[in-house]
Hints:
The complex is a heterotrimer of chains A (838), B (354) and C (120). With 838 residues, chain A is an all-alpha fold.
Amino acid sequence: MRLPNATPRPPGELAELERIWDRPRGWRIISAVNNNIIGIFYVGTALLFFVLAGILALVMRTQLAVPNGGFVGHDLYNQLFTMHGTVMMFLFAVPVVEALGVYLLPNLQAARDLPFPRLSAYAFWAYFVGGLVFFTSIFFDVAPRAGWFMYPPLSSTEYEPGISADFWLLGIGFIEISAIAGAVEIVVGVLKTRAPGQGLDKLPVYSWAMLVFAAMIIFAFPAVILCTLLLELERAFDWPFFIAERGGDPLLWQHLFWFFGHPEVYIIFLPAAGMVSMIVPSMAQSPLVGYRLVVLAILGTGFLSFGLWVHHMFTTGLPELSLSFFSAASMAVSIPSGIQVFAWIATIARGKMRLHTPALFILGFLFIFTLGGLTGVMVAMMPFDWQVHDTYFVVAHFHYVLIGGMVFPLFAAFYYWAPTASVRMSETIGRWVFALIFVGVNVTFFTMHITGLRGMPRRVWTYPDDLGWNTLNAVSTGGAFVIAAGVALFLFDLARRFRPFRTEQPGNVWNAGTLEWLPSGNYQTRSVPIVTSREPLWDQPNLAEDVKEGRYYLPGAPTGGRETIVTSPIRAEPQYLLRIPGPAWSPVLAAIFTAGFFLLLTVKLVPLSVLSGVLAVAFVLVWVWDTDPDPDHPPVAIGGGIVLPVYATGPVSHAWWAMVVLMLVGGSLFACTVFSYLFLWLGNAEAWPPPGAGLPHPAWPAGAVLLYLAGAGAVLLAGSFLARGGGAGNWPFRILLVLAVPLLVAAFGADLLGLWRAGVRPSETSYGAIVFGFAVIQGLYVAALVVMAPYTVARSFAGLLDARRRVTFDNTRMLWLYAVAQGLIALALVHLFPRLVG
Amino acid sequence: MRRGALGNRFVRTSGRGAGAGARRVVKPRRLLALGALGGTLQGCAGVQSALDTAGPHADRVAALGWAMFAAAAAIFLLVLALALFAVFARPERRRWLGGRVVVIAGGVAFPVIALSALLVFGLSTLRALDPPPAPGGIRIEVTGRQWWWEVRYLDAEGGTIAISANEVRMPVGVPVEFVLKSADVIHSFWVPSLAGKLDMIPGRVNSYRFAAGRPGIYRGQCAEYCGAEHALMAFFAVAMEPAAFRDWMARERGPAAAPGDAAARRGAEVFLNAGCAACHTIRGTEAKGAIGPDLTHVGGRVSLAAGTLPNNIGSMEGWIASSQHIKPGNFMPSFDVLSSEDLVAVAAYLESLR
Amino acid sequence: MSRAEMPAGRALVFMAGGLIVWACQFGLVYAINTHACSFGWGSARIGGAGLVQLLVGVVTAVALAALLVLFLASLSRGEGEARRDPAIRFVRGMAAAVAMFGALAVAWTAVPALVSMPCA
């Protein structure tokens, strides 16, 4: 095969590439945005939270080592278990898999970086600052104490008057936003920035897993964002979404929370399973058996995991048949796990498993995860669940699933991929780490199955000494310290050997087949290979050498800045060259001020919080200002006769995809709100709207509809003026876009005013609360557009927006039309639905 | 079965006892010296184990559980054996295991058959759990409160026959319907030896019917995290022979006994004057408080403080004087201002209320 | 840019179609039962069969029909370059497999309606 570029390459080409992709030195590394650097920061921070949450668990286990223990009191214990769950789920598990995705995906797909490196940096810093401040609440006795699931009414103002619940709601709500930012990045990264030829049929299983992972975040996280928002509205303004006396329903929280919470488990598991599907073939030196079946399993898991949320509500007294549907879905979701387990076993059987540390962790994973999966099928049977629900049996079950399904693969991944970032970790110590953790986990948690069956409930800070739980608990505590010893040993080895950001690497130490083992630097690979196999390094001879010498695509940096090849989502054909932004302080500052906004709001420093929020928005605008580069740069030859444009708009562009993904997030949030509305209606159908809060005269919503449509029309018309080009349409474009803003605000205001005049009050009944809840959601979009429209006009004035260079306007228009569509649906639901059913 | 006619209907509660004014907020104290608690539970008879069953409901669930355990253990060992075989067997012997057929057989075909069987078996168990409705059967309304249980025995029309706390008594062999409510946060009603758990949710009424198979004292505990003292919110289900139950009920529905001796008389006075009556009711006396448990027949109960202490005069004194040490954060203040004579008297009086 | 590239959004939805059908069926049957129990027509019967069971049956039948259509559509070969391209063939094969898996999930979801009481 003829390679795209001839060698020798021009002198200075490599040096130029290295200069452009060099990381900021010294403390300036904070401004770095490259995935290799942010990825390592991200993984490291997640690991820190793993250790911190683990320490909380050790304190709890010490308290429970003996009956009637006096090590900690009930109040601290309740904070400890709340924080342990919250930190493990929100600050460790999701971030760490997202972090590894940020680090690994460009490596696996031979992209120079992810498409939105500054977004990754923002997501990381928001998480870093927000997470650390959130964690410190435990030292000031203001940590949340209502459990990581935060069920109202226990988390409502009446039973939790302090700020600790607000810490949870705002802190976590905000970290979820960071997770969503990361998910947008990952979806677009997997679909659009791959090595040429790496079509969907050759996509690494890990990329598949991350794609489905990110898609699941997009559909699951809005549910928890909504319920945290509703509960915070209830706490701050007394809007009774969950207060039974005023028509609210505590179960609404449980539905929304678990609609997020159950997929969450698989959100954590899928990336881990993806890692296993990369590590097993490499350690066994044989391609994965049943690639298509495994991809099917990943897709199946992604969907079916959304049909399980009531699983967590089997004891709430819902109708039997409703519960049974969820039992059935629980059966179905275990098929994909079965497929994957047998695919791994078959791959091991076909190859020859080399029992290095990563392989040991994989085998440990198979052992623990299989056991956890089987107890999962057991708790999916309602009668059995009624006994073990909220007992230590369930604690045992989900620790088997989460530690087995996620922590073990993570350790395997760490030992496996460490050489791509630094050096190989010590094999001797690695075996000890594995042995300690494996034994510790089984001693701790297998015992808990029995403790639970013998009647010990969860979340108890102490227990009496005559119920036969003493020995079991002592054993569990002992096991917990064995796990801790293993983790400590791992940290010791890490501190001793792991030195990231070095340029020399040990190379393809496992003789693996995938692209992350190509010789690489911060710019990833010297040239971007054509991929013709799932394991290119096994099947494409001399690939590493050719890539390193620059014989493949894009051996330099022809535009003089950072760039990566954007490929088509299905076949991975090169489409255009994406110029990506370099290091910047604005994402870091935007993240810090976003965190400041939420945290200051928690401690009720409202003016400071607003200031912080304004600064956050300002820095976001600074950061995006130079992300829509000059479209007039001539097309660039990347080799092999392929000449790529360096600018793209519309459905080809990465920006369009990101916007679509963002609107899916919005749509999901809105769908959850609609669900909440209908759910509350079901409980109050006889009085909807309740007496005293009538429906506004139809003129109000009709006026709002007209204003929405007029605003949307103005935006569309502005677009057609922009398209004329040549500057002639500039003024009409600007005027129309500015004019559209008051129309949008007026539409929003007309609806609110109508409701208010009809006597609807958000704090009186759940009806008023949810109707105004729609307004809050819609208000977010109105506020965003009120910022985006002037920003777009400003770019027009600055000469940065014209008929070709129009991504900013395209995005604003797309969001505008979305907001109008959502507003119209909400109007129909609020004003027509009660008239239809009433 | 688990939910009767009231199930899932949205029921507005009157807010009785749940308003902020009705609750006395005692600042939770961090308690380091819990020695007082150690060992005090000795003698509280009763088991709390899903493995030690004493009723048809729990029996059936245990049978389902054991069947699933056996199947799960077999599957687990098989997977483990295959994995080890794949790693360690000689290449020519393990070759058959390395194909797509294995993935389809082990990952699709086998689970589909096994899980279909389990689904039908499990759902049938669910139906079998439904005891035949017993017309005119016993209904007991249990209301979860932070951190104790209010118990009302209902007549056929839903009127209250008798009020008790932290203890349900039921005749053996007859399905009893438990009407489950909450007055504050979510709790969960669970007696593992007799049946699984069902939540008590504000604004909803859940209903659960099950029977005890043999006489005995079975421990139950709140299974939904409900705040500070969730760990110390237990109760006892006492299953009695029907005749004994009838006798007990005849006494339980009546008012409290008049104090029998001088000490008890003094105790009754202290009870009214020291503030106890602000929260507690003793039927037949002036004490009509509605915040804490009804104490009309408190001397006859198995435990004190929702399963936290055995019921005897010593623990009664201890509880009154230092309730905040024994169960920190609960809504009863420690009456450590009482003189020791008053304390002994009031404890003696309460213990005489059988 | 290639002529044979499928519109990506459509291809992704097509590939996951079988499971999207399941999600619709699952959501619908759950909503049906919840409404039935809330409004007290959980034990209503039409011509010997329970109303809830009947509705679940209808939804399931429609879902299975949709899956059949998807499955047949995924078998059609396409033309020209699309016929040979491995990535596009992969998408079609995956759509077929997902439709089959979706059928299993849909069938299982309907099983409880045959066994369980709607509102007990």
